[in-house]
C-alpha cells in the first residue's frame, strides 16, 4: 500500500539558512522511528547568497549533498575547498569524526538542495569524502547516483540505500526504480506527479513498504528523487544530525497532526 506524506512539519529558519526536514519513518502509521531503516532523514536546505555555516563536526552520518541548481561551497580539514552544483555530487562518510563548513558567496544564486542522511552499518567507521562529476541527466530517465559499497552507482554510502533522480516532462509516464527486498521512498522536489491513485505536489513524499512496481505520471514538469531502502539492514543510530536526540518522537508528531498544524517542532541551539 502506498503511503502519502504531506509537507514536513519541521521547518527551521536560522537567518538565511532554512531547513525542511523530512522523516521517512513518520509515514508509517505506528512507527517509533523517524527514519526508515538506514534512511534517517531527507533535508531540503535553502541557503541565501552570502551565508556561511561555520566549521562544525559530524559523526556517524553518511551525508549526501544533491544540488540540482545553484552552488554550494564546501570546505573541510582533509580535502580543502570543493564546489557542489548540478554537475557534481558530494558524499561525506563522516564516520568517527568529520569537520566541514558550507557557504554561498554574495554573487551566488540562491541555493535549494537536498542533504540526505544515511545511517551507516556501524559506528565510528573511517571518515572520508567523495566528490566528483555526475553523468548529465537525460529527460524522463532515472539517474542512479549512489548506492552501497561495491555496487554499480558512481558514489557509495555504507548501508543498503540506493538513490535516483529524474527530470520529467509534463505528461511523461515512467516506473519508479525497484529492487527485491527494498522499500521505495520518494520526494517531489518540484512539480506535481500522480502515483498509486494519489497526487503528490512539491515537497510531498511517498513510501511503498515492500516495494514492487509503481508507475508515476508527471502532471507538470517535475523533478523527483527516489530511494530504495532495505528496512532490515543493520544500522547505528548515533548520527550527529540523522539521529539527533532533539528530533520529536513519532507519537508526538502523530498527536500534533491530529490536534493542529504546527510548523516548528524541532528546535536546536
* Beginning-to-end CA distance, first to last residue: 38 Å
| Number of distinct beta strands | 22
Number of domains: 1
How large is the count of helical segments?
1
The CATH homologous superfamily is called Jelly Rolls
- The CATH topology turns out to be Jelly Rolls
Rg value: 17 Å
> Class in CATH?
Mainly Beta
Average of per-residue pLDDT values = 93
**SS content category:** mainly beta
Write the H/E string, N to C. EEEEEEEEEEEEEEEEEEEEEEH
Helices and strands in order:
Elements: E1 3-5, E2 10-13, E3 17-22, E4 39-47, E5 52-58, E6 62-69, E7 72-76, E8 80-84, E9 88-93, E10 98-103, E11 111-118, E12 128-133, E13 143-148, E14 155-157, E15 161-168, E16 173-175, E17 183-190, E18 192-195, E19 198-201, E20 205-208, E21 215-218, E22 222-229, H1 250-259
Summarize the structure.
This protein is 4% helix and 46% strand.
Amino acid at each position: 500500500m502506498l503511503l502519502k506524506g504531506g509537507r514536513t512539519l519541521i521547518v527551521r529558519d536560522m537567518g538565511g539558512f532554512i531547513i525542511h526536514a523530512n522523516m521517512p519513518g513518520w509515514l508509517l502509521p505506528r512507527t517509533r522511528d523517524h527514519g526508515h531503516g538506514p534512511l534517517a532523514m531527507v533535508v531540503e536546505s535553502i541557503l541565501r547568497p552570502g551565508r556561511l555555516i561555520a566549521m562544525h563536526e559530524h559523526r556517524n552520518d553518511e551525508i549526501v549533498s544533491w544540488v540540482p541548481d545553484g552552488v554550494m561551497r564546501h570546505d573541510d580539514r582533509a580535502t580543502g575547498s570543493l564546489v557542489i552544483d548540478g554537475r557534481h555530487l558530494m558524499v561525506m562518510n563522516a564516520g568517527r569524526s568529520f569537520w566541514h563548513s558550507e557557504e554561498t558567496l554574495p554573487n551566488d544564486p540562491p541555493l535549494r538542495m537536498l542533504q540526505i542522511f544515511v545511517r551507516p552499518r556501524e559506528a565510528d567507521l573511517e571518515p572520508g569524502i567523495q566528490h566528483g562529476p555526475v553523468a548529465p541527466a537525460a529527460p524522463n530517465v532515472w539517474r542512479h547516483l549512489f548506492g552501497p559499497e561495491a555496487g554499480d552507482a558512481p558514489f557509495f554510502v555504507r548501508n543498503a540505500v540506493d538513490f535516483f533522480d529524474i527530470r520529467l516532462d509534463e505528461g511523461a509516464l515512467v516506473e519508479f526504480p525497484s529492487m527485491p527486498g527494498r522499500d521505495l521512498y520518494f520526494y517531489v522536489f518540484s512539480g506535481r506527479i500522480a502515483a498509486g491513485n494519489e497526487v503528490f505536489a512539491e515537497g510531498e513524499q511517498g513510501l511503498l513498504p515492500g516495494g514492487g512496481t509503481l508507475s508515476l505520471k508527471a502532471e507538470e514538469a517535475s523533478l523527483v528523487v527516489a530511494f530504495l531502502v532495505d528496512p532490515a539492514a543493520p544500522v547505528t543510530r548515533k548520527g550527529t544530525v540523522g539521529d539527533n536526540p532533539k528530533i520529536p518522537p513519532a507519537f508526538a508528531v502523530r498527536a500534533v497532526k491530529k490536534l493542529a498544524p504546527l510548523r516548528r517542532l524541532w528546535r536546536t541551539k
